[in-house]
Amino acid sequence: MAAMPPSPSAQTVGDVRFPNSGAAAAQAAFLYGLAQLHNFEYADAARAFRDAQQIDPGFAMAYWGEALTKNHPVWMEQDLPGARRVLERLAPTAAARRSKAPTDRERAYLDSIEGLFGPAGKHERDLAYRDAMRRIHETHPGDVDAAAFYGLALLGSVSEGRDTAVYMQAAAVLEEAFAAHPAHPGLAHYLIHAYDDPVHAPLGLRAAKTYSTIAASAPHALHMTSHIYLAAGMWPEVVSANEQAGRVGGERAARAGVKPAACGHVNMWLMYGYLQQARDADARRVLDGCRAQAAGTGGLALRAPEQDPLDPDNVPAGSYIQMWSRYVIDTADRSGEWTDALVQENIALGDLAGAQLTRAFVRALAAGKRKDRANAVDGLARVREARRTLEAVLGQRRAGVEQHRRRSAILEQEIVAVVAGLEGRHDEAVRTLQQAAADEEAMAIEFGPPFVDKPAAELLGELLLELKRPREAAAAYEAALRRAPNRAAARAGLARAREIS
Predict the structure, then answer these.
(1) What is the model's pLDDT at position 4?
(2) Residue 18 contacts residue 26 (beta carbons within 8 Å)
């Protein structure tokens, strides 16, 4: 049975078929919830699973599905207490819950999340879930959802950065199932996650082009296609995908009587796409919309308690500073003007250590570009202070710290080089940026716009051009473009370097 919406209004969320022992009357809601679970539309999925539970209170798999909406692989988020509360509504103990599942297959699915939401540390639970899903996939090779959830569990087992070997293992599982089930939302979605880096993006184009039609009513699905397009530097497609996601998301918000989000993931990617197309007025419109939200009530609040405040998408003010950084750097790179009052504007950042570092970096970089030595030196001191604050935050965490530490070190290296250049220590500036570029190259690729706000190889290319070393500058820009294909500033710099070499 294909997934159907639990309400009269037709929606396109994907085709899922999951044999189960629930009541016939609960199937439409359950399958709709399952499709939206695969689409990472977690709130919508949870509502649908609760609808299925209301129709059939003993429907074990409806509780399984709702519990999984509390686990967000790839984003590395999990509401563990919330998941446990869902399971306890089914029955108070694992054994009692297991007795509610009438088939071996359903019991295996329930068992898999007992480990995922068990007492061990998160990484150990992620690995236990991966292994449980592998066993289900091997035992039920014709179960497309077992393949999909196993592929996702593999992706979710990588707790830091990007492990290419594991991602390709997931892709192999997903590709085999996708050939037989080309309308399944999870298979297309997770393949995009497996391939969303510059090297593998061409392999993800088929899934990206298909996913927007598979789940045309799911804003996250529409946005997800741009993971491949951005990694490939396909700016018209990036913009179109995120404009469509914003439109569908806005329509959904209007139906729910809430204001559409002006900050966050979709808006950030849309603005970045506009910038790469030199559509600065459109980019500024998106930025200004986010500022209004970030400066208002709730601008410093997490969208949900389990979310990571270091992820800019989770806090409006953090999202705004991330967008502001991209806007300032990319528009100034193109115009050569670093004196815009926007650089010095202030919005409250509270204790958002990551946002504080980003703002300090951008202001120091702008001072350097203006040849303002005094403010660049002061900016370096502020970057170092912000790094110390961030390090104190990272020191309290068990995971998800290495990429942040590497980024913060590279940002400081870049400003050290800027100051050295202003003081005439050109060889030191070049060496420092060469090291920063090597350090950035050694980092795992983060999907999306460059994780280092001003790519170090790009900044190195600019310095080498100033020093009239165009061939070396061209090599630096080529390296920058390998990591961020078709990025406008690097592309323009490479053209200048080749023209004068």
Answers:
(1) 46
(2) no
